[in-house]
Structures are given as C-alpha cells and as structure tokens.
Design a protein that fits this description.
The chain is an alpha+beta fold. It is built from 24 helices and 23 strands.
C-alpha cells in the first residue's frame, strides 16, 4: 500500500514543528524571566529611554543585581530572540502559502486566527476595566458588603496605607500567661494568614483604588528593631508615631498608619481564639469577628477617639495617680490601649476648710490639682531658699565684721554663746570657725536643698503655667459651669464611689464624702439627657461608726438612678471565706497571713445581655482560667416595671454569700450568717438576710425622661413625686421610693431618646495600678456596649473557623482515605481503559 502523502515527513515540516515548540517555550521563558526581573530589579521594566534600558541591562547581565536578576534577564533575551525568529519563519511560510494552490483556504484560516486572537485580546482588555465578580462560596467568604466597598473608596489612592502585622505570641492582652502556649502560637499563625488574605482581596478589588504596604513583624526576631526602624523611620528628628505604637503594644496587633495617624486593632477583634472550644474539640477554634471591623479600623484613621471622663472626689482616686489602693491607673491603661482617651475630674476641694458635709464641691481637672500642688511646692521652696539666702548673706557680713572688730567687742557679743571669755586671736579664730562658720555651713546646706527642690518643681510649674486653658479654668469658680464644660466633649462618664475597700482588714471611705451637690447632680442628669451613657460604681453605704463616719443620706444622683428603676441595696455582701478570715485576725495586733480571699463575682449563666456575652467570650479566649474576686459589694437590681429586651443582670455573686447589715468585725463580734427569725421585721423585705447569689451589676437601655428634655412635660410626674417621696418601703432610704413609679406615670414622647446605663454595686471594681484580666474584660465589654460599639464586643458566630478546616470522626476519616486511595487511582484506570477501548477500533 502506498503511504499517505499528507503524512509524509519533510525537513521543512520538522523544522517548523521544532521552531513552534521552541516558540512556546520561549514565550514561557520570557514571562518567567520578566517575573524574576520585576521582583529583583523593578526599575528595569520602568525604563523608558533606549539608552537607559541598554545601560541597566548590561549592569544586570554583569551580575551586579544578583544571580536571580541575571538569570531572569538572560531568559528574557533568549526568549525574545527565539520569538523573533519564530515570527520571521511564520511570516515567510505565510507568504509562500499565499502563492500556493490553497491560497484562499490558507488566507481564510489566517484571517480567522487573527480575528480570534484580536477578539480574545479585546475582550480581556475590556474585562480588565469593566468586569463582574461572583462569590460562589456558600457563606460568601470572599465577598464584601457594598457599604464596605463604598467606605473604602474614601481612602486617598495616592496615599499608601502601611499595614503592620505584629506577632508577639499573645493573642490577647488579657492573657495572663507570660509565655505563649502552642495554641496561641498556632492561632497567631492562622490569624496572620487571614490578615494577609484579606489585604490581597482588597488589593485585587480595583474599586477600592488604594495602596497597601504590608509588613509582618515578630517581636522575638533578632532583627525586629532594625526592621521596625526601616518601616517607620524618624521624621525631622522626631520619633515615628507608628514605631511608638508598635513598641508600646502588649499583644498581637494589626496597625494601620497613614498621614502620621495610627490605628491599632488587636488580633482578637479580627479572629478571637476560643481556648475552651479548642480544648474540647482538640481542634483550633477561632471566632471570626467580621471583615467590617477590619475595614472600619482601616477607614477610621481620621476619626476621633472616644473620650471617657472619670469623676472622682480626690486626686488619689484619679487615673493619673500611682497609689496602689486608690488609683484608677489600671483603668486608664486598659482604655487607652483599647483606643480611648481618658480625662480626670476632681469633684471635691481638699485644700481649704471643710463644710458641714465635708470638703466643698469642685470640678477640677487633674492638671488644676497638680498645679496647686506644684505651685505650693515651688513657692514654698522658693520662699525658704530666699530666706536661707538672706540668712547666709547676713551671717557672712557679721563674720567679716567680727573678724575685724576689737577683741573686747567680740568677747562682749559672743562669750556667752562661746562658753568662755575671748581674750586672744586664737580664741577669735576658734569662735568664728566653730560658731559662725558652722552656722553658715548649715544654712548653706539648707539653701542648696531648697534650691534643688525649687529647680525640680520649676519645669512642671512652668509647663502648667503655660496651659492657658487650665489657667482660665482655675479662674472660674462656678462649679456647675466648670463640671459641664469638662464633660462637654466626653462620650462616657464614669462615677465611682469606692466606700468599702477591704471588708477583711476593715478599710472603708465614709460614703458621705461622695455626696454630690445639686449642681453637680444636674450636670450628670444633663449628660444623660443628651443621650450619653454613664457607668456607675456605687459601693455599700452601711459603714456608720467606722472612723466616725456619719449616716449616709442619699443625694440626687441616687434619686437619678431610681428614676430609671435602679434599686441599690444598703447592705454589704459578705462571703464565708471573708468571715473566716476576719476570725483569724481578731484583734488589732494580729495580722492576716497572706492576702485575703474575697467573694467571687461572675456572669449569670442565663444572662443574654451583650455585656455578659462579650465578657464570657473574653474568658473563653483565656481558657476560663481567670476569675473576678472583689469584696465589699452591695445588691443592685431593677424595679419590676423596667422592661428590657434582654436580661439586665450582668454580674452576680456566688452562692456562698449573704447580705450583712454590720459588715465589719470588732473585738466583740464577727459577722456571720444568721437566718431571719419569724418575728424579724426585715423578713419578707429586701433587707432580709439570706443566701446568695446577689445581683451586683445591671445594665439597661432606658428612655430619657421626657420632663428632663422638656420641663413642660413634667406635670404628671411632678405630682407623683410630691405624693410619693416619703413612701419609702421597709429598708429603703428616703427618695429611693421613686423606683416604685410605673411607666404610666411618664408622659409619652413622640421621639424618645434612649441612653445606656451600667450600674455596679462596687466602687473599686476597676481600681489598681494594673487591672486583672477579668477586670479588663468586664470594663471593655461594658464601655463598648454603653458607647454602642457593639461591633467591638467579642462574638461567637455559627460559622466559626476551625483548623484543620474539617473536623471528622475516625469513621469519616477512614471513608475519605478509601476515596483518596485507592479510589481515585482506580477511577483513573477505568477511565483510561474506556478511552483505549474507544480508540482501538479507529
């Protein structure tokens, strides 16, 4: 049989086939080489002039830019050369084809190929600018809400945003562990991957139109400081804001920086590690907090930080004081690390005479009290230094006079002080040395001490003196006006009353010292009327007899809380452990061995309030290894007429507690739980002594009373108040009977304003130089909820992320193993057999 001429293999056919194969490989080589060059020498592909291109290429081919860049450029040069040769051969073949017998057919095929290629190029070019993307995942994992995309469009495309992913081994600042465990390290790695994936998603979205410079830093890396300084160099001799923020971080964080503004986002606000679930499932469990938090932090670089006002009665209780038992420094640290600003307001004046109810009312900033202290120190030391300076000058003049005076004059003036007659020059020299010179040395040493103290206080004195706003406030004596101005730009007000400090050792602050005047209470009421939240921490008031403390009389702030249905008990809650420790230290001379153990405060299991849920999630992220212990709480509850969509109790005591009327021990008695007798007048009332648990923390979102916003609406309410002020129930102080009013008493309002209030029955819940993890978790959960930053509360979604991604039983794993091997190889073998059977007849 003759062979088919169409299958004849000629030299030209082989040459063209080889050349086409080389052309395809050359195209791949050119692309790969371009990628290497772009990575190693990005400026080469951006060269525009031929001369610069030649010079730069020779520089790279000489190996000065690195081996990868050299290899990549050679791949491009050789690839382009082969592509040019291929194009020339194909062009010659096409011309010869035109002159052949199949000119028309060949030309038609060529035109079709050109049209197909052109259509492909045009379609891709158009799709690059106008495209449509569809996320086919079930939970829309790779999609963003339209609102988030629109908010990202606000970013300036010409201003790059620097994103620093800081790895410190601690997935949460609340984690008490000093060293990261394996679970935290694994979570750190996975969350970092999630951050990088989200940044890539943002980069690929051309609608965003902004640039991101991403850097991953590990604090344990030896070159950490060098890398950080390279990313955030000093500007004009001033420390870079981003570098300061990174160096001050205490947990894994994401930093966004642009235009000298920095925003920090902890890992826990992006993906929250659940150590409890991870331990139960033997699988890393992360709770996604939502992409919206990431985008809001990115866009919110220009937004103002929320400002919190802490109103206390003494500078020792402020957040800028370092006294361990009194300071709120830990509160300031926690809030500032979470992105808040904190300001202190002092509500009492302690420098002047006291009135009948203690120190007079005030509204000082911390700078004002600091200035008074620094001014006193500076002026006193200046005055003493001036006095000693004058004394030294006078004594030196006197010495010079006595050194030249006749001996008789010296003997007359100094013989009594010297103790013997002064007859010779030796006596004169001795008396001048041991009497006059000694006094001059003593006064000179005192002068140097006073000058040193004055010079030490001088910088602070001058700094505060240059604070025009503070100096203007000092001249204002209107307490209400100053207090209102101090909280005008604040978003949250904290009013603590730390009365019972230590029930075991007997420490207490008289509650009457915390009473506010009507003017001060009016400012708090106006603050609430504006819809701004207040966090109350009111400790027990039954400390009469302690250090002569007078009986507490509720002020207008107590009545303000009663207006919202908040009922504050007057007793102190004690635990069995506290009572036992009081017995161990009976007597003033005996000391308690070790630190006292206070009552445990916890979230009710049935509570579904956002504060309780957020606090619980924080504790789960720490493995439920931390607890909150505080002694000296009082019961807090809401009136029955208060209606809320969720449970209102966010904190309660354990069951081993009871409410005590006399919480402090003395030489004769120790508080113990005594069940009430049938004849006890307190039986059946709120004051009845019984076992816990007791609610010691409530939170509610209430409607601002209409009469506060509009005095004309106060008609029915005023009448009810006048008729019900003195109808306090058993055990209730005067004025708290307002809580018994019903919503029907209030005049309806067309557009009511609501406010979020939180009330804890402990004034020292957030006191200390450093808050414990449980305290920080409760504080952040409460403040974020009150400021309506619900998105900042930790949450657990149904679509938790696990690693490994799929959690399977051993039986399921065995099935998947059979599918993978030998299932897939057998399937491929069967398909190959079918193909062989089909092709064999052909």
């Amino acid at each position: 049989m003759k062979s088919d001429a169409r299958r004849a293999t000629r030299a030209g056919t082989v040459f063209r086939m080889v050349l086409r194969t080389l052309g395809i490989l050359a195209a791949l080589s050119t692309v790969a080489g371009a990628c290497l060059v772009q990575t190693e020498v990005p400026e080469l592909l951006g060269v525009r002039s031929l001369r610069d291109l030649q010079a730069t290429s020779l520089h790279v081919l000489a190996g000065s830019a690195g081996k990868l860049a050299e290899v990549g450029l050679w791949m491009m040069v050789v690839g382009v050369a082969i592509l040019i040769l291929w194009a020339v051969v194909e062009l010659i073949s096409g011309l010869m084809l035109v002159a052949g017998r199949k000119t028309a057919a060949g030309l038609g095929n060529t035109v079709q190929v050109v049209l197909a290629v052109t259509l492909l190029v045009v379609v891709n070019a158009v799709a690059y600018q106008w495209y449509w993307r569809e996320d086919c995942t079930r939970d829309k994992r790779f999609s963003m809400d339209r609102s988030l995309i629109d908010s990202l469009k606000q970013l300036d495309p010409n201003t790059p945003t620097t994103v620093v992913v800081l790895q410190m081994g601690k997935t949460s600042a609340l984690d008490p562990a000093s060293k990261p465990d394996a679970m935290s390290t694994a979570a750190q790695t996975k969350i970092t991957e999630k951050v990088l994936d989200l940044i890539d998603e943002l980069r690929q979205n051309r609608e965003v139109g902004s640039r991101f410079d991403v850097h991953v830093l590990n604090s344990s890396d030896e070159t950490f400081a060098e890398q950080l300084k390279k990313i955030a160099p000093d500007v004009d001799g001033h420390a870079n804001t981003l570098r300061q923020a990174v160096e001050g971080a205490n947990e894994n964080s994401i930093f966004f920086a642009a235009n000298n503004r920095v925003r920090r986002m902890p890992f826990s606000q992006f993906y929250l590690l659940d150590k409890v679930a991870s331990g139960e499932q033997a699988n890393l469990v992360l709770h996604p907090q939502g992409k919206d938090r990431f985008v809001r932090a990115l866009v919110g670089l220009e937004t103002r930080k929320p400002k919190v006002a802490l109103a206390v009665i003494h500078p020792l209780l402020a957040s800028r004081n370092k006294a361990d038992d009194y300071t709120s420094l830990g509160l300031r640290k926690t809030l500032e690390e979470a992105g808040f600003d904190v300001t202190d307001i002092i509500l009492k004046k302690w420098s002047g005479p006291n009135g009948p109810n203690g120190p007079p009312a005030a509204a000082f900033s911390f700078e004002e009290t600091e200035f008074s202290k620094v001014e006193g120190t500076f002026n006193m030391n200046s005055l003493l230094a001036m006095n000693r300076e004058q004394a030294v000058a006078i004594m030196k003049q006197e010495r010079d006079r006595l050194a030249k005076a006749p001996l008789a004059t010296v003997d007359k003036e100094l013989s009594r002080a010297y103790g013997q007659p002064i007859k010779t020059e030796a006596d004169r020299a001795d008396v001048l040395k041991n009497l006059i010179d000694f006094s001059i040395d003593v006064r000179t040493n005192e002068l140097n001490q006073y000058r040193a103290a004055r010079d030490k206080a001088k910088p602070d004195y001058e700094r505060l003196l240059a604070n025009d706003r503070m100096m203007e406030a000092r001249r204002n004596t209107n307490v209400k006006q100053k207090f209102a101005a101090a909280v005008a730009d604040c978003d949250l007000l904290i009013l603590p009353r730390h009365t019972v400090m230590d029930v075991v050792r007997g420490g207490a602050i008289p509650p009457m010292l915390y009473s506010l005047t009507n003017e001060q209470a009016d400012v708090a009421r106006d603050f609430i009327t504006a819809g701004k939240p207040v966090l109350f921490g009111f400790g027990p008031t039954n400390v009469e007899g302690r250090r002569g403390a007078p009986e507490y009389v509720p002020d207008e702030v107590d009545q303000l809380l009663a207006r919202f249905g908040v009922e504050l008990g007057t007793q102190t809650i004690l635990s069995d452990a506290e009572a036992q420790q009081m017995g161990e230290r009976r007597g003033d001379d005996e000391q308690l061995q070790g630190d006292p153990t206070f009552a445990e405060l916890k979230v009710p299991k049935s509570s579904n309030h956002p504060i309780a849920l957020g606090y619980t999630q924080w504790l789960r992220s720490l493995g439920n290894t931390v607890e909150l212990h505080k002694g000296g709480s009082r019961p807090v509850q809401l009136a029955k007429w208060v209606k809320q969509p969720t449970s209102t109790t966010v904190l309660e005591t354990s069951t081993d507690t009871w409410n005590e009327s006399k919480p402090f021990s003395d030489q004769n008695t120790i508080p113990t739980y005594d069940p009430p007798k049938p004849s006890d007048p307190k039986k059946g009332t709120r004051e009845e002594e019984h076992r816990g648990p007791f609610a010691v923390g409530v939170a509610l979102e209430a409607r601002v009373p209409a009469e506060w916003r509009d005095p004309k609406a106060a008609g029915p309410f005023a009448a009810s108040v006048l008729g019900g002020v003195g109808i306090a129930g058993p055990g209730l102080p005067m004025g708290l009977s307002l809580a018994a009013l019903t919503p029907d008493t209030f005049k309806p309002e067309a557009n009511p304003r609501t406010v979020r209030l939180a009330v804890f029955g402990h004034g020292g819940l957030f006191v200390g130089n450093k808050l414990e993890p449980a305290q920080e978790a409760l504080l952040l959960s409460t403040v974020n909820w009150q400021l309506r930053r619900d998105d900042a509360l930790p949450k657990a979604e149904a679509t938790d992320w696990n690693f490994p991604r799929v959690s399977m039983t051993p039986q399921q794993k065995s099935y998947w193993g059979l599918v993978a091997f030998p299932g897939l190889p057998l399937l491929m073998a069967v398909l190959g057999l079918f193909m062989w059977m089909v092709r064999r007849p052909r």
